[in-house]
Each structure stands twice: as structure tokens, then as C-alpha cells.
Amino acid sequence: MQQIKVMPVVGTRPEVIKLAPVIKKLNQKELFSVITTVTGQHREMLDQMLDVFALNVDYDLDIMNSRQTLTEISTLILEKLVPILKKEAPDLVLVQGDTTTAFVGSLAAFYAKTRVAHVEAGLRTGDKYAPFPEEINRRLTGVLADIHLTPTDRACGNLMEENVSPHQIYITGNPVIDALQEMVDEDYQFENEKLQELDFQKKEVVLLTCHRRENLGQPLENVLSAVCDLLAARKNLELVFPVHLNPEVRQLAEKMLGGNKGAHLLEPLSYRPFVNLMARSDIILTDSGGVQEEGPGLGVPVLVTREVTERPEGQESKAVKLVGTDRRQIVREVGRLLEDRTEYEKMVPGVSPYGDGRAAERIRDVLLFEFGITKKPPADFSPGGIK
After folding, report:
1. Residue 148: how many CA atoms within 13 Å on its side-chain side?
2. CATH 3.40.50.2000 for the 193-346 domain, yes or no
3. Does a cis peptide bond (omega within 30 degrees of 0) precede residue 378?
4. How would you label 24-58 residue by residue, b for 16+ Cβ within 10 Å and e otherwise?
5. CA separation (Å) from 171 to 94, 127, 150, 182, 313?
């Protein structure tokens, strides 16, 4: 029987995290030939994740340049990916999420008349500038996709409202939960000296991540000012901030927190230590999309420094709350959780709203069904997301 040639195209840290379980699952079946292609959209953080998940790379576009624009990223990916698609002629291009790599990878596949499967399809805020440029990247990828692999019922519903054929949609869960389950270890020992010295049992530990384009400038300054207020008011509080590589983020973080003894500014962490840091923190304060999914999976309350989110399931489960970038609001919400155990427990869900750790298995089975290897979809879901 002829193999199904699948080309995953990844460019950023979150894409590797979420596609790694899928790639590994496909590689376990001789029915698949996997051609892993990376764009290098986020070079250093991408390479970290490839090492963590021990993924082999067949093609590396290596597009990363200092302070490159969205136009430059898009143009380089398209120019370098099209010849590879022509050479390899895959049966399917597999993309994930809302990055420029996902959108342009799908566009290149369309030009090559190659089918596209979109992992984590159907997330929407309804505001094309929030998150920017991710909302439009995701919508355009959805237009180009042939197979929509949605994490939740709500995401499935979003696509059906946009007149996507129900027979192109499958609810699979989010493979980030698969990755989490692989990485979390109760006995994990940190290599970072600052994390080794941190007493997670006795201290109030707040983990901060902040990197979104729309939060650069005054919004980020507001968030860091709120953190300074919390550290001044709560002597038992320790802030851990793995600082994004973006120069704007790094310069402001060093300026506002560099001399604060309660603030631990770290280099970006690889995924395994980061996941185990999340699991040991009391609160996560973030503008990340992926962390909104990971926190509930670890039972840690997540406060989101954004005005809108394309992941409302976390809010509905009470595990995630939008707090925006207002200084006083952030101080109030963090303080409320640290001071009121009842309020804290309300934000600790018993079950993750994003899946059960079997998303990669379901995605593999969808592809077997779509390419006619199996005649029926798995018993727990079917085309159209009707369970």
C-alpha cells in the first residue's frame, strides 16, 4: 500500500509543542511518510523545542532575520517553501494554529494544489486586530484548509457558522494536552539556579509571560508596574519572568524589574522546565494563547492580560479570567486569588476544557479516514464534529 506523504510545516515554539505529538504518532505508522519542514520564524525557541521533542527536520528554510517585518516573513516563507512542495509533492500539508508560518504554509500548499489540514482550527475573537496578526492568520488558514481539526465544540461551531462543510470538520481535542502529559513530572529537578533556590511551598509564586505585539509599549509597562506594586505590597511574593527575546520586552523588563529582589528575570525556558514551572506556580499572569490552554490542564489559575481571547472555553470553565492591562485591575485580581482560598479554588477545574491527551491519536485516525485507509472515523467522533 502506498504511503500517505504528510508535510508538517512549523515555525514557532508553540507549533512544535502542539505538532510534536502528532508527528510522533504519524511516525509510528508505516502508512505515513512524514517530511518535517521548519521555517525558522522563531529561530532559537524553535530549535529548543525540536531538541526537547527529539524531532528530525527534513527541510529548514532558516528565514529568521533581526527585526524582520511580517511582510518579510511572509515573502521568505512563500519563496522558499514553494520549490520544496514542487520537489516533494506531498499528499497533505499539516499546519497548526495562527502563525504567519501556518497561513503562508497553507497558501503555498494551495498554489501547489495540495490538501491542507489545520490543527487547532476554528478559534475566533471576531476582532481582526486582536490578536494581531494571529486572528487573520487563523481565518485565512481556515479558508485554505481542506481538513479542519478543531479542539472543542465551540471551535467547530465557529467554522460551521462560516459555512465550512461539516464533513470537513473533526473535533479532536488539543494536542497541547498530549504534550503536557508527556512533560510534567512531580519529581522534576530544575537546572536553573534561581528556580532551584525558590521555595515553591512557602512562597507565593506568580509566573509572568508577556510578548504579544498589541501589548508592547504602554500596555506592557502597565503590566510590569502592576507587578512592581504587588512585589512592594506582598513580601512573600516571588515573581518568575522568563523574558521573551523581543528586544522591546527585554529592555523594559530590565529597566523596571532588574533591581527588584523579588523578581527573577530568566532567559526563555525550554518546554520541559517551563511546564514544570507552571505546575508549581500559584498563579500564571500571561498574554499567551497556549498558556491559556496549558494552565487549566495543570490546575493553575490563569489571569490573561488581554482584552479578548479566542479561547473562551477556559473562561467558561472558570480556570481563566481576562484582566486586561489596567494596572489596578491586575493588582486587585492577583491579590484576590492569593488572599481568598475559596476564590482560588473556583479557578481550579477538575477537567481540562481542551482535551484528554488523545488528540494526536485522533488526528492520525482522521487522516487515515480522509485518505481512504479506514472506512469509518473513530467511534468517539465523526465528520462534522458530531460525537
Report:
1. 31
2. yes
3. no
4. bbbbeeebbbbbbbbbbbbbebbbbbbebbebeee
5. 16, 24, 5, 21, 14
Listed in sequence order, the residues at least 6 apart from 6 whose beta carbon sits closer than 8 Å to its beta carbon are: 26, 32, 33, 34, 35, 90, 91, 92, 93, 94, 367
Q: Where are the domains of the chain?
A: 4-173+358-370, 193-346
C-alpha cell at 105: 504554509
- Segment 336-357, tens digit of pLDDT: 999 999 999 999 977 788 888 9
CB contact set of 51 (below 8 Å; sequence gap of 6+)? 270
Catalytic residues: 98, 120, 134, 211, 213, 244
d(CA 120, CA 187): 31
Is the pLDDT score of 381 beyond 80? no
Q: Cα–chain-centroid distance for residue 257?
A: 26
In this predicted structure, the answer to whether residue 44 has a pLDDT above a threshold of 70 is yes
Q: What average pLDDT does range 16-41 have in this prediction?
A: 94
Please indicate, yes or no, whether the overall pTM of this predicted structure exceeds 0.90.
no
Q: Which fold has domain 4-173+358-370?
A: Rossmann fold (3.40.50)
